[in-house]
């Protein structure tokens, strides 16, 4: 038999016929009601819609209730109690307890958060059950409830214990002083600004200079002689500078002039009334 003659090719069982091949097209949803759904776009579209609604609601909340701004940060202000953002309040409150503070600070800052984060990372391996009901997944459900309750309670405790009005009162006490006054130049040159603040609001090294109980003579004496831990600022022979800085400080940097003038006018009117009464008698 010559090569190729007398042979017929019947077929190859390894290659199925076109009619019997599996179609690379997903079946219609009607064949599997409630049991199958395409990830894109059906499932993903629902996720996008929910995320968009949440994002719009969150943006509206930030516009209606913007984050309050406090005074400029001052490392010397020891009376100010800082507080972290709301999403770290639970950890801030945790560090207040004796078991997670002091000698056990590492426990509160590294160990406990590390265990919580590690449990979250290992959650897929800790509970591999196929069940979707929470009641049939005790490990995952218990960890989730424990985390939610702990974070919610610690956040509420931190917000309840913090004195929110303290920061507002500190911010309200800061006034804008007159920087064009000649006394301001002396206030800066003599380094008064280092202890009493840029706006005479006071620092950890010195009190504020608002509404002082001293008159110009009392302030002049303090400037020349000092008081307590405050040393003398200006030599006694510099009378002009002493008068200028005394007037500036008593006026609260130009913020108390109206009050002082009003009191002076009232005193003058009272004196005139008394003189008129004496003349009538």
Brief account:
By secondary structure, the protein is mainly α. The chain has ten helices and no strands.
Helix content: 40-55%
Top-tier CATH class of the largest domain? Mainly Alpha
Give the strand tally. Answer: 0
- What are the secondary-structure elements, in order, as H or E? HHHHHHHHHH
Q: Give the uncertain stretches in residue-range form.
A: 258-269
Distance between the termini: 161 Å
The outline comes out as elongated
CATH topology of the largest domain: Cytochrome Bc1 Complex, Chain D, domain 2
Rg for CA atoms: 39 Å
Q: Tell me which CATH architecture of the largest domain applies here.
A: Orthogonal Bundle
Can you tell me the number of structural domains?
3
Main sheet characteristics:
none
Average pLDDT reading: 77
Determine the number of helices (DSSP H or I, runs of at least 4 residues): 10
Q: How much beta, percentage-wise?
A: under 5%
Secondary-structure content class: mainly alpha
Describe this protein's structure.
By secondary structure, this protein is mainly α. 52% of the residues lie in helices and 0% in strands. It has 3 domains: 27-66; 86-161, no CATH class; 176-264, Cytochrome c-like domain (Cytochrome Bc1 Complex, Chain D, domain 2), CATH 1.10.760.10. Helix 3 (105-126) runs antiparallel to helix 4 (138-161) and helix 8 (216-225) packs across helix 9. The chain is elongated, with a radius of gyration of 39 Å.
């Amino acid at each position: 038999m010559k090569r190729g003659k007398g042979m017929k090719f019947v077929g190859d069982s390894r290659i199925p016929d076109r009619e019997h091949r599996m179609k690379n097209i997903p079946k219609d949803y009607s064949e599997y009601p409630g049991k199958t759904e395409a990830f894109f776009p059906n499932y993903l579209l629902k996720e996008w819609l929910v995320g968009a609604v949440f994002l719009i609601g969150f943006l509206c909340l930030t516009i209606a209730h913007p984050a309050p701004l406090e005074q400029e940060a001052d490392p010397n202000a020891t009376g100010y109690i800082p507080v972290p953002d709301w999403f770290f309040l639970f950890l801030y409150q945790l560090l207040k307890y004796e078991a997670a503070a002091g000698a056990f600070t590492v426990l509160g800052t590294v160990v406990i958060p590390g265990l919580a984060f590690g449990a979250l990372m290992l959650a897929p391996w800790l509970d591999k059950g196929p069940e979707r009901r929470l009641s049939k997944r005790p490990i995952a459900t218990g960890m989730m409830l424990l985390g939610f309750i702990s974070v919610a309670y610690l956040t509420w405790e931190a917000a309840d214990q913090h004195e929110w009005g303290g920061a507002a009162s500190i911010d309200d006490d800061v006034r804008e002083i007159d920087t064009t006054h000649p006394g301001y130049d002396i206030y800066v040159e003599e380094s008064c600004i280092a202890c009493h603040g840029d706006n005479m609001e006071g620092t950890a090294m010195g009190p504020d200079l608002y509404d002082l109980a001293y008159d110009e003579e009392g302030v002049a004496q303090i400037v020349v002689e000092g008081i307590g831990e405050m040393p003398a600022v200006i030599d006694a022979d510099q009378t002009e500078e002493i008068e200028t800085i005394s007037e500036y400080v008593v006026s609260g940097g130009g913020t108390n002039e109206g009050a002082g003038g009003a009191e002076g006018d009232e005193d003058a009117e009272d004196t005139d009334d008394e003189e008129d009464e004496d003349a009538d008698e």
